């Protein structure tokens, strides 16, 4: 089009020049050479010939253009709605104007968010990065998590605002600082450093033919395991081998514990099963001294029925004697190793000490990670190899590495808890709220539920554990299914239906969790906490259910 306009201008200038030449008077040449007529005539004729040719060519181009232009416009006109074309252009202009304003607002918001992020990271640096105090770290974890959540939220907002400006996989003229790559993340529920190597220990060196007969009668299996651990401490202090009770008098420990594991860890024959002990004594053993740690509410916390069971196993004994006259299980006094040596040391071959579950002696020493006895393992009292492998297979099948374990005790717990001040029995909605807060804090996708609660309670609990609109699954061990192989070891060895094996399996799974929520006042929970501490799986987030708050409703007394 530009080329055609230029040609038209040149033709117009040529025509004007030709007309002007015709009307001007003929000038008289002033020089002899200019007066030569033939040359002058030839020049005029040549010029006129050129003008005619150019005019003819230009005329042809202009008329051809004028003829074909309508032919080109007619199809366009017939196929296009002119009104919509112009209105569309106007709308497009308006939309572009609004879009530009939106982009400008987004960029301004991004600028402000970047300013906020810079301030948050500066606050993080000056407040927490140089803190090496473990106590302070625990106290400030909630503040650190809240601050990091704000940094992360800021980052997500920036990414959302920038998403319309993406070109491929890059962002136009913007940089989003990712705290995860800038060293501003931390594991809120990290493992607790319990300084296992710094623990205080005592060597267990049993003298030949010197035995301590363990008596544990208080409560259920968890109580008995705690009692057994304390008896091991007594045996180490008194330089005696510990005799594990018979399954006819106590629980069948060989189904849940591996006594040889204890001996391997200690490096000596420190623990002897009852059957091996009786074989050494040719099926008749005599307890030379039967010493009671507690004298109240009854000596040794043992009744006549259990004494008869001992006698029926081929055990003879003398009269029960109390180490202290006024030692009550309800108000146990603190004892030292010196106290134990003074009251229980003896040259007799076989002595028995009554139930020591409630005993309070050298608490900081006895309850430290790994226990008070020197050994080469993580802990002395732990689940058997079969239970340990079964727990690992269950976790691999259903849970994965990142899960919360919840011990949710309910059966018989209402009356027990309401007798305490404050009560430890929580309504389902309140419990669900506490659990949900822990899920958010620990950032875990699933919960293992160890419970004796009725289906009506667990069903309601499951429906109420919801975070960000997503239900958090509560997983329990399913009934036996031959298609599942995670529990095959238990069936292969014929211990699948033993309630104590199932209880120990629950404990083991809970002890391997990322975070553990326990039932306050439960020795089942306390034994899990012991295992987690000894195995090094204890987390900064481990706590009792709704720790720090009481039930929002408590029933009256009978």
TrEMBL record:
Topological category with respect to the lipid bilayer = Single-pass membrane protein
One GO term (biological process):
fucose metabolic process
Q: Which GO terms describe its cellular component?
A: membrane
Top-level taxonomic group: Eukaryota
Subcellular location per UniProt equals: Membrane
Q: Does the keyword rRNA-binding feature in the UniProt annotation?
A: no
The membrane spanning regions, by residue number, are: 63-86
Q: Does the keyword Glycosyltransferase apply?
A: yes
Molecular function in Gene Ontology: peptide-O-fucosyltransferase activity
Q: Which keywords are on file for this protein?
A: Carbohydrate metabolism, Fucose metabolism, Glycoprotein, Glycosyltransferase, Membrane, Transferase, Transmembrane, Transmembrane helix
Annotated region described as Disordered, given as residue ranges: 1-39
Which portions of the chain have biased composition (kind: Polar residues)? 28-38
**Similarity-based family:** Belongs to the glycosyltransferase GT106 family.
Q: Which PANTHER family does this UniProt record tie to the protein?
A: GDP-FUCOSE PROTEIN O-FUCOSYLTRANSFERASE 2
- Stated name of the protein: O-fucosyltransferase family protein
Lineage of the species this protein comes from: Eukaryota, Viridiplantae, Streptophyta, Embryophyta, Tracheophyta
């Amino acid at each position: 089009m530009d080329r055609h306009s230029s040609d038209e201008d040149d033709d117009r200038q040529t025509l004007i020049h030709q007309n002007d030449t015709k009307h001007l008077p003929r000038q008289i040449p002033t020089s002899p050479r200019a007066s030569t007529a033939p040359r002058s005539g030839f020049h005029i004729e040549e010029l006129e010939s050129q003008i005619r040719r150019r005019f003819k060519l230009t005329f042809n181009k202009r008329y051809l253009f004028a003829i074909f232009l309508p032919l080109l416009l007619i199809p366009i006109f017939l196929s296009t709605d002119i009104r919509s074309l112009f209105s569309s252009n106007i709308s497009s202009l308006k939309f572009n104007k609004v879009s530009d304003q939106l982009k400008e607002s987004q960029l301004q918001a991004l600028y402000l968010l970047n300013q906020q992020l810079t301030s948050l990271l500066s606050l993080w640096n000056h407040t927490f990065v140089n803190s090496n105090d473990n106590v302070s770290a625990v106290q400030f974890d909630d503040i650190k998590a809240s601050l990091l959540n704000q940094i992360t939220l800021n980052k997500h907002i920036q990414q959302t605002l920038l998403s319309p400006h993406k070109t491929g996989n890059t962002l136009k003229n913007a940089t989003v600082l990712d705290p995860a790559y800038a060293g501003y993340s931390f594991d809120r529920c990290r493992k607790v450093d319990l300084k296992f190597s710094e623990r205080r220990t005592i060597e267990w060196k049993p003298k030949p033919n010197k035995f301590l007969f363990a008596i544990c009668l208080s409560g259920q299996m968890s109580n008995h395991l705690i009692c057994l651990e304390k008896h091991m401490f007594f045996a180490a202090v008194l330089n005696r081998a510990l005799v594990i009770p018979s399954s006819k008098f106590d629980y069948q420990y060989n189904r849940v514990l591996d006594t040889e594991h204890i001996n391997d860890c200690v490096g000596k024959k420190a623990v002897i099963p009852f059957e091996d002990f009786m074989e050494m004594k040719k099926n008749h053993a005599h307890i030379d001294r039967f010493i009671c740690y507690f004298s109240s509410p009854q000596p040794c916390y043992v009744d006549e029925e259990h004494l008869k069971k001992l006698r029926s196993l081929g055990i003879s004994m003398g009269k029960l004697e109390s180490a202290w006259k006024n030692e009550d299980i309800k108000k146990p006094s603190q004892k030292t190793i010196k106290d134990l040596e003074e009251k229980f040391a003896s040259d007799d071959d076989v002595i028995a000490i009554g139930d020591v579950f409630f005993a309070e002696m050298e608490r900081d020493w006895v309850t430290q990670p790994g226990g008070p006895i020197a050994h080469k393992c993580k802990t002395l009292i732990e689940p058997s190899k079969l239970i340990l492998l079964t727990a690992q297979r269950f976790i691999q099948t259903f849970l994965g590495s990142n899960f919360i374990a919840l011990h949710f005790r309910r059966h018989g717990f209402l009356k027990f808890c309401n007798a305490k001040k404050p009560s430890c029995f929580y309504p389902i909605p309140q419990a669900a709220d506490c659990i949900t807060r822990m899920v958010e804090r620990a950032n875990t996708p699933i919960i293992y539920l160890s419970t004796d609660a009725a289906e009506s309670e667990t069903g309601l609990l499951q429906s109420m554990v919801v975070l960000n609109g997503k239900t958090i699954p509560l997983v329990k061990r399913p009934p036996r299914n031959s298609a599942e192989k995670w529990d095959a070891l238990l069936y292969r060895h014929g211990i699948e239906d033993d309630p104590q094996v199932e209880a120990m399996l629950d404990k083991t799974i809970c002890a391997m969790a990322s975070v553990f929520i326990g039932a306050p006042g439960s020795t089942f929970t306390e034994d899990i906490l012991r295992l987690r501490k000894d195995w090094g799986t204890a987390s900064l987030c481990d706590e009792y259910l709704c720790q720090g708050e009481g039930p929002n409703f408590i029933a009256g007394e009978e």
